[in-house]
Design a protein that fits this description.
The structure holds two protein chains of two kinds. Chain A is mainly α. Chain A contains 18 helices and no strands. By secondary structure, chain B is mainly α. Chain B has one domain. Classes of the chains: A mainly alpha, B mainly alpha.
């Protein structure tokens, strides 16, 4: 008798007991359950929730691996700069190296482990208390969380934030599929408001920069957005921004790999291309407006908004996390709008508001997560009016037909 | 509770199963605004206990001579007078605290619980019962305020009543020496709402009959 049938027998034996949901979750993670369909007709499809989640994770893995290399690269590069050495990036010369990977692994992997361990523990706990099956929702959230936090965030803070995000962001609403807000962004928002010194500034984005601050070995890790917000010159080239050799949250720097992930999501029809596309459109639109304001000389060069306003509109996509947010966050099928027209409006407003917050927020030059959370809240309202408009249209059509 | 007899329910009900904040969802505004510190929560609770107890007595005494058309104005006048007394006492004996609480003492007038109890209870009941009802509801309100204030000050500032119970965050003593940091989110009003929500959650999962459809 193999392991598979042993597990099936155990499942029958302990049916209805308190820990059964926890056992079933591990069981179905490893094997197809032995349940057969009962009752009427069924549509058989391979893309169940676990498959969907796994596809998203697959599309995130390139970003994660790149994030590890980049963590190491940014650290050693910052040290070089502090020592007065100018470093030219070359992919196989000084980017994909064992040094970078090892440093990246020991800083990034603990984030992944803590995120999954704490999040799944909360999920299991709720499943056992409430007696329902463990839901798969956290599989993706757990992968997104390490990618959207600064590299040196203390692990206990991450753990507290994950507990908060899963309980308040999801479980109180009834678990996976019922949440209003994107849990991963709830976790990030909690971290941002609770521990702002670890989530913003010019120190947190490069490993060790906080530790070394104030010493003779101090290194800097200012992001591009941070430099723009202080009207400083940008030291990164456009190709560095596109390929992602820049400081930032762990997994959001490489635009190339995010686009690759987007293609996987669009091709498998898991992410909505409408949302991705309209978010980018909204961001470009707001960028154009700001460019026009600068061109019309309505704003003086000494203004603190000048730096970010004068960014060419298309470059907004290369800096900050707007692309990552558009592809992996805004497309969350639970918290986004459900109607096709609604998705256009929802995405457009996310892009529009993101760039607006980015330019006008004096304390923190990035607003993608705030914009997405805000639109998460409005998504049901958008859907409501889209549906109502459709009903009205059809009633009018009926009237003209019968008249 | 021999002294109170059957009236003891007037005090015990609002403490738990008919709590003004967690069950009737009244008085939320001040529960969010002033609970970042435990001291402010306690002073606010005491002030409201005084205003509610005295106010219910006054309204109950004159309930038969208030013309019903202008009763809201009469009630407002009574609350306003009592609030001014509280405000003046605070200014006289604890000026710094009165400055800290600022407008919120004055805004006790707008606390929905007070007008609610005047309307719902004092206008129709005797003086003693009205007094108990006022005290009971105010204590029920105060208990929640103090619970919320306790957690917000402890987790948000690491202090209780101003004493650094978790160590010094700048000198890195106590809990801070192992890397603990204060949670700034706790000091913001949204977190007060979430803490009140958690209290409501705990209360209703302990007593399922409180859950509405």
């Amino acid at each position: 008798m193999g392991l598979k049938s042993t597990l099936h027998n155990l499942k029958e034996k302990y049916k209805g007991q308190k820990m059964a949901p926890a056992f079933n979750a591990l069981h179905t993670f490893l094997y197809l359950p032995n349940e057969v369909t009962h009752g009427g007709t069924h549509i058989k499809a391979a893309d169940d929730l676990k498959r969907t989640m796994n596809t998203v994770i697959l599309s995130l893995v390139p970003c994660l691996i790149f994030g590890m290399f980049n963590a190491g690269y940014q650290h050693y590069r910052a040290i070089d700069i502090a020592n007065g050495i100018v470093r030219e990036v070359s992919l196989f010369g000084n980017f994909i190296t064992w040094d970078n990977l090892i440093l990246g692994a020991i800083t990034v992997l603990p984030l992944v482990v803590v995120s999954y361990a704490v999040g799944l523990a909360v999920e299991f706990l709720f499943a056992v208390i409430k007696g329902h099956e463990v839901e798969e929702g956290y599989l993706v959230t757990g992968m997104l969380v390490p990618l959207i936090v600064p590299i040196d965030i203390p692990l206990w803070m991450l753990a507290v934030a994950v507990i908060f995000g899963v309980v308040i962001g999801k479980e109180v609403f009834g678990g996976t599929g019922m949440n209003i807000l994107n849990p991963a962004l709830t976790i990030r928002a909690f971290l941002f408001f609770a521990y702002p010194t670890w989530m913003s500034g010019d120190k947190v984005w490069v490993h060790d920069a906080v530790e070394r601050a104030g010493t003779s070995e101090a290194i800097s890790g200012e992001t591009i957005l941070g430099s723009y917000a202080q009207n400083q010159d940008i030291i990164y080239s456009l190709s560095e921004m596109f390929y992602g050799y820049i400081p930032g949250s762990v997994g959001e720097t490489s635009k190339l790999l995010i686009i690759l992930g987007a293609l996987i999501l669009i091709f498998t029809k898991i992410g909505s291309w409408r949302i991705i596309f309209s978010t980018i459109l909204g961001a470009l639109f707001m960028g154009v407006i700001f460019n026009l304001v600068v061109d019309a000389e309505l704003i003086s060069e000494s203004s603190k908004f000048f730096g970010l306003m004068s960014v060419p509109y298309w470059q907004h996509l290369l800096i900050g996390s707007i692309l990552f947010g558009a592809v992996f966050m805004a497309t969350d099928p639970v918290s986004a709008s459900q109607t096709n027209k609604g998705k256009w409006i929802y995405g457009f407003l996310i892009g529009f508001i993101s760039i607006m917050i980015r330019v006008f927020n004096p304390a923190y030059p990035e607003g993608v997560f705030l914009a997405i959370l805000l639109m998460n809240v409005f998504a049901p309202t958008i859907d409501h009016y889209v549906v109502k408009a459709n009903v009205k249209n059809r009633l009018n059509r009926l009237k003209t037909k019968t008249a | 509770m021999g002294l109170l007899g059957k009236d003891s329910k007037l005090i015990s009900d609002p403490l738990a199963d008919n709590n003004p904040i967690t069950i009737q969802v009244l008085g939320i505004c001040s529960a969010l605004a002033i609970t970042a510190e435990l001291k402010a929560s306690i002073v606010m609770s005491i002030s409201v206990i005084f205003v509610m107890g005295a106010g219910n007595v006054v309204i109950s005494l004159i309930r038969n001579i208030i013309p019903s058309k202008i009763r809201i104005i009469v009630q407002l006048t009574v609350v306003a007078a009592l609030v001014i007394i509280v405000d003046q006492v605070l200014k006289a004996y604890s000026y710094s605290l009165s400055k800290e609480l600022g407008a919120f003492i004055g805004l006790i007038i707008t606390n929905c619980i007070i007008m609610g109890r005047f309307e719902a209870f004092a206008l129709a009941n005797g003086v003693w019962r009205s007094f108990l009802d006022g005290i009971g509801n105010a204590i029920g309100y105060g208990v929640i305020l103090i619970i919320v204030g306790f957690f917000r000050e402890l987790l948000g500032s690491g202090t209780l009543l101003g004493y650094a119970v978790l160590g010094d965050p700048i000198e890195k003593t106590g809990l801070y020496s192992i890397g603990y940091e204060n949670n700034g989110f706790m000091l913001l009003a949204p977190m007060a709402l979430i803490v009140v929500g958690l209290i409501i959650w705990v209360q209703r999962s302990r007593n399922i009959s409180l859950i509405e459809d």
